[in-house]
Known about the structure:
- With 65 residues, this protein is mainly α.
- It is built from one helix and no strands.
Amino acid sequence: MEREIINLQDKRIERLLLGISAMIADALEMAQQAKSIPVDSEEKLTLAQMELENLYLQLGKPESI
């Protein structure tokens, strides 16, 4: 009987450890995603700026026939 109680306690502890481990993994993934947001935003803004510059230059050029 005592062995069964210990086994149940071990399983409960194992489930708790797995739950805590999953929470840590989720938090790490969220932190990594948060770090990539500024980099992605900067890249998109740079591309948009380049597109605007190209468009501006094209609008300023006289059309050649």
